[in-house]
Amino acid sequence: MQQLQYLMRCLRDKAFGCAWDKKQNFKSVAPYTLEEAYEVLDAIEREDFEDLQEELGDLLFQIVFYAQMAEEEQRFSFDDVVNGIVEKMLRRHPHVFPDGDITRFGEPTLLTDQQIADQWQQIKAQEKGGREKSLLADVPTSMPALMQAVKIQQKAAKVGFDWPNVAPVFDKIREELDELEEAMKQQSPLHIEEEMGDVLFAVSNLARHFKVSPDVALNKTNIKFRRRFGRIEALVSMQNRKLTECSLEELDRYWEQAKREGL
């Protein structure tokens, strides 16, 4: 860590550092952080642990980058970041570290998973000290939309604003699809966009009830589509043809062939 922090200081050095690194700020680095996080998730999904090691390094570099910029502005240091998370984890795991004492690790806990989750939320609420005006205030608006939808629904569910089972969720999806179809008939782009959002929100709610991440599920479908579409391209290429020369019916037959091949 010392080497990495020193390397970062060198890259940001005003006189001899890297021109690109020197001109960065918190907002300009943020998109790269999101990209690196998704690359970590991709490596995990592919179970490529050699790649995961590299991607975790890239993600760690992002954290060091932010900490260096913050230290330059005398806001906080990397040590402050580390100390803060250690203190928080000790505080939020009293069943593992009684009284927040890291030296007392090893005492058995009798709490269930649900009790641990409830305890976490209670401690988190105490930390906020009543500063939040809304239950949804700590759900970042910059979070990817599907993930944000699930977080919002989880928050609302904790106070009882939720359906007891999946049956009414299916009904809600059908209702939203009907409203989307009606908006389509009205040919109102803004209304169509609104109703499409309602459909996606309802579908993400269904995923939550099934304890499925809609982001992960959709990503797996994206990977599957890439794989099958790649097979279509290969089949068309073997005939010395272009995709644009094929009818939809032909492409659909190739798609079904890819499915039969287990792709």
TrEMBL record:
Q: What class of enzyme is it?
A: hydrolase
Q: Its gene?
A: mazG
Family matches, as InterPro entries: MazG-like_dom, NTP-PPase_MazG-like_C, NTP-PPase_MazG-like_N, NTP_PyrPHydrolase_MazG
Q: Which family does the UniProt entry place this protein in?
A: Belongs to the nucleoside triphosphate pyrophosphohydrolase family.
**Enzyme Commission number(s) from the entry:** 3.6.1.8
| Organism listed in the record | Marinomonas arctica
Q: Which SUPFAM superfamilies match?
A: all-alpha NTP pyrophosphatases
- Please provide an example of a Pfam family that matches this protein in its UniProt record: MazG
The reaction(s) this protein catalyses: ATP + H2O = AMP + diphosphate + H(+)
Query: Record's superkingdom?
Result: Bacteria
The protein's name in its UniProt record: Nucleoside triphosphate pyrophosphohydrolase
NCBIfam families annotated for this entry? mazG, PRK09562.1
Q: What is the lineage of its organism?
A: Bacteria, Pseudomonadati, Pseudomonadota, Gammaproteobacteria, Oceanospirillales
UniProt keyword annotation of Hydrolase present: yes
The NTP pyrophosphohydrolase MazG-like domain, residue ranges = 24-97, 173-228
